[in-house]
Amino acid sequence: MVHQRKIRSSFGKWMKLFLPLQKMRFFPPQFLVRDPITKGVWKAFNSGNEVAIVVFNIKNLRELPDQLGQQGYTKFIACLKKVFQEVVKQEIDSEEVIALHDYSSDGLTLLLSIDHSQYCVTEIDKKMKKILREAEKNLYTEMPAASPVFDMGYMFIEKKHYSIQEAIMKAHQQALAMAEKRVQSEFNEMLYALNKIIAKKDIRMLAQPIINVATGEVKAWEMLTRGPKGTGLESPLQLFSVAKQTGLLYDLEMIVFEKIIEQIKATGCRQDIFINFTPLTIGNERFVRDIKKMLAKHKNILPSQLTLEVTERDSIEGMDNLLYNIKVLRTWGFKIAVDDTGAGYASLHSISEIMPDIIKIDRSVIQDIDKNSVKESMLQGLLLIAREAGSLVVAEGIENKDEALVLSRNKVDLAQGYFYSRPRALEKGLKSS
Hints:
By secondary structure, this protein is of the alpha/beta class. The protein has 16 helices and 14 strands. The protein folds into two domains: about 1-180, Alpha-Beta Plaits; about 190-415, EAL domain (TIM Barrel, Alpha-Beta Barrel), CATH 3.20.20.450. The strands form three sheets. The protein has an eight-stranded mixed β-barrel, surrounded by four helices. Strands 4-5-3-6 form a four-stranded antiparallel sheet, sandwiched between helices. Strands 1-2 form a two-stranded antiparallel ribbon. It comes from Cytobacillus eiseniae.
């Protein structure tokens, strides 16, 4: 009963939405549950996207009426919503926004439709922090007398939940817990769950083949992570978002590396293996030492078989330790790949800084390339950049024969995607289908 009253209370007020961003409207709570939010979440799920709930919580909201007076407090609340609306409009594509509203009584909540093939967890985290920084700056300009103290947290809505409304509520409570870092809360439960996964190394690795476009043979495998089957952390987006927010991202990524090394040994795989790492992990001062220690236990696995894939679009400026670590790892024989090329300036800047052995062209360039001459011209430009950098090219996300034919006529080196094979367990003698 207490839980039901809490849920009713959370909806027991009018909420502000923008769908799209330019049109702000008010809806009664019962309409919200039934239509705009639920409809937006279902639409995102049906298009293959994930839905992130981001909470911008004000720790000292209840102290502000005393600080500002009732009139000043009312003005602050109106200013808060206006500022966040403007910043979100500047930073997020309107098609990605499901809702922005006062779902939490101590702040605002943003629901986003996330294409997991276009976004990584660290990028989402940085983008939300930028929104918060810009909003804080604009709030101070508008109302310098106010001094709100913000926390931020986010979580992804579980697709497998039997009730979409309860799934939204659960994800919101978890995002709020991440923001508040409350003792005896969902935050501690998720921290415990992730620590348990790391302690037991309870993750699964799937392999997706990387194909030689000219011959059709398997040249390499990209390893993909899944959490414990049937749990809320099975999805890699959920798993890595919790790891990021709980400070366990490095530990999780090192468990991934260890699991992959063990699978190479168990299967006797001799083809190249691509392993995803965030720049934060590769740039960690412990990374080189820890990698060396793991490889020392498996002397038959050579670094020359392993490609470390930098899975970020964000600029690597200021990450001197990352570049130094890459230099050291290269002297051992590791190859370096840059992911998401073509998704923006940051990925091209990363190429000039890292000079990678392999450039992976983002799915956004490849999708419907057979119907779009501009995209084919973009591909040709990226191939020229790759040749100048001395890099091989992998085209990601190939889903049909027509896309594959465009790669073939442009002499792209390698490709991967569902057209060739879905991810599966790495096994002895595994071939591409």
